[in-house]
Amino acid sequence: TDDKILVGPTLTFSGNPMTAPWQEVVRIDTEGAVLLQGNRIAKVDKAVILLDRYPEAEAISYRADHLICPGFVDAHAHYPQTAIIASWGKRLIDWLNDYTFPEEMRLQNPDYARIIADRYLDLTLAHGTTTVTSYCTIHPHSVDALFEAAARRNQRIVAGKTCMDRNAPEGLRDTAQSAYDDSKALIDRWHGKGRATYAITPRFSPTSTPEQLSALGALWAENPDCLMQTHLSEQTDEIAWVRSLYPEARDYLDTYEAHGLIGDRALYGHAIHLEPREIDRIAECGAALVHCPTSNTFIGSGLFDMAGLRARGIPIGLATDTGGGSSFSMLRTMAAAYEIGQLRDTPLHAAELMWLATAGSARTLHLEDRIGSLAEGLEADLVVLDLASTPAIAQRAGEAKDHWEMVFATIMMGDDRAVRDVWINGERAGERSEAKDAI
Ligand code: GUN
Ligand code: FE
Predict the structure, then answer these.
(1) 72-364 in CATH: which number?
(2) Which atom of ligand 1 is nearest the CA belonging to 81?
(3) Residue of 137, 164, 234, 235 to test ligand 1 pocket, by largest number of atoms within 8 Å of CB
(4) Labelling 249: which of 12, 29, 53, 95 has CA 20 to 30 A away?
C-alpha cells in the first residue's frame, strides 16, 4: 500500500463562510489527520482513528504548531509578467504600455516562454500555491508552455491565450479571426486534458474590437464548459476609456454582455468601481469576481467592496494578479485583503481569508468538487504551514490564545519559510529547501 496519513492540525470547511458565520463552517482540528490514497484525499478524521484503522499506511507527522490546509488556489495571475513584478510608479494604462507589453513581447520567443513558465510555477509552488489561473500572451506557444510545465508537475491549472486586436503594440496583436482560431485549437489541445482547464481570455474591452469580443463570445457558446476570464472596472481612467470606445454600452460590464461574454463560468478580475446595474447583473447570472488586493493597492486602483459584494451572494475568489500584484504569495495576498477590509471598516477573519484563498477561489473556477478543501474524494493538493516559521511569528504564536491567532500571525507576517510542505496530486513536491533551490 502507498497510503499515507498526514498527522497534524487540519483546516476543514463544512460550508461557505461568505454566507454563513465562519464559526459554524470553518474548523481547525488540532488532533486531526488526512489519509491520502493515490492522488486522492480518502479521509479526514481524528489522527487516532485513522492510525488505528490504516495501520499499514505510512504516517507523516507534523508538529502541533503546523496546519494541514488545502493547497492555495490563485484565481487570477499573469505568468508572463513574472520578470516585471514590482515595477515602479505607474498606474494601469501606463503600466501596461511601459512595462507589461514590452515584457509580453519577449515571450514571442518560445524558449523564453518556457523558462518563465517554469520559473513562475516553481515560485508559486514554493509559496504553497498548487493551482494557478493565468493569462498567457497572445502567442499560442505561451499557452502550451504553461500547460506543459504544469503537466510535468502534475498540477491542476487554468489558463488561456490572451486576445488583443487593438490598442496594443505591433507584434502583440491578433485579429478577431485568429483569436478565435488559435483559442479554438488550444481548447481542443488542452481543455480537460489531465488536470487542465481552458479559460477563453479577452484581455479587457479596451484591447479588443467589438468583432473580437463577438468572436470569443461565439467560441464560448460553442465550448460552454470552458471558463471565460477578463478584467472589469479596475481603474477610473480605464472605465472612462471604455466608455469612449463603446459609446453604445450601458456600462463596462455591458461591453462583455453585448458580446456573449457573461455567464456563470465568467471570472471578472478586480471589479472595484461597479455600477448598481453591473452588480445586479453579476449576481443574477452567477458570474464570479476575483479580488486582487496587492495589485489594487500597488497600481493604485481602489478598495474592493468585499462586504457589499459577498452580501449579494456573488462568488468571490482571491488572487495575486502578478505582475500587477506585488507578491507571488497567497499569504501576502490574504494579508492585503485583510488590510483593505480594515480600510473599509469590514475586516475579514483568518478563517474567511483561508477559505477565500482555497475553496473560495476553487469555487469561482467550478473546481470545488476537485480541489480547494480537505474533503473525501478531492484531489490531494495540500500545503502544510509552519505557524512558527520565524522568531517573531513563533513568539506571537506561542502567546496566542487559540490556533486562529497563530494562523493570523502567519497570514500577516509569513512568507515562503512558512510553507513546510506542498503535496500535489498525492505526492510531496519536495522539502521546502529543495523547492527553494529550484527558484
Ligand atoms: N488590465 C488589462 N490587462 C491587465 C494586466 O495585465 N494587469 C492588470 N492588473 N490589469 C489589466
Ligand atoms: Fe490581471
Answers:
(1) 3.20.20.140
(2) 6
(3) 234
(4) 95
Question: Which residue among 76, 81, 84, 92 is best mutated to probe the pocket of ligand 1, counting the most ligand atoms within 8 A of its Cβ?
Answer: 92
Pairing of strands 427-431, 419-424: antiparallel
Measured in Å, residue 321 CA sits from the centre of ligand 2 at: 5
Query: Which of the listed residues 231, 270, 290 should we mutate to test ligand 1's pocket, taking the one with most ligand atoms within 8 A of CB?
Result: 231
Residue whose CA lies nearest to ligand 1 atom number 11: 231
ipTM above threshold 0.85: yes
pLDDT tens, position by position, for the chain (439 residues)?
Answer: 799 999 999 999 999 999 999 999 999 999 999 999 999 999 999 999 999 999 999 999 999 999 999 999 999 999 999 999 999 999 999 999 999 999 999 999 999 999 999 999 999 999 999 999 999 999 999 999 999 999 999 999 999 999 999 999 999 999 999 999 999 999 999 999 999 999 999 999 999 999 999 999 999 999 999 999 999 999 999 999 999 999 999 999 999 999 999 999 999 999 999 999 999 999 999 999 999 999 999 999 999 999 999 999 999 999 999 999 999 999 999 999 999 999 999 999 999 999 999 999 999 999 999 999 999 999 999 999 999 999 999 999 999 999 999 999 999 999 999 999 999 999 999 744 444 444 3
Question: Which residue carries 499557452 as its cell?
Answer: 143
The number of the ligand nearest the C-alpha atom of 101 reads: 1
- Which residues contact ligand 1 via a Cβ below 6 A? 78, 92, 96, 100, 203-204, 231, 234, 295, 299, 321, 324
Q: Are 143 and 159 in contact (CB under 8 A)?
A: yes
Rounded to 10 degrees, the C-alpha dihedral 318/322/324/329 comes to 60
The CATH architecture one would assign to domain 4-70+373-437 is: Roll (2.30)
CA 231 / ligand 1 centre spacing (Å):
7
Distance 78 CA to ligand 2 centre (A): 6
> Which residues lie below 8 Å from residue 49, measured CB to CB, with a gap of 6+?
none
Helix (H, G, I), strand (E, B) or coil at 104: helix
The domain spans of the chain are: 4-70+373-437, 72-364
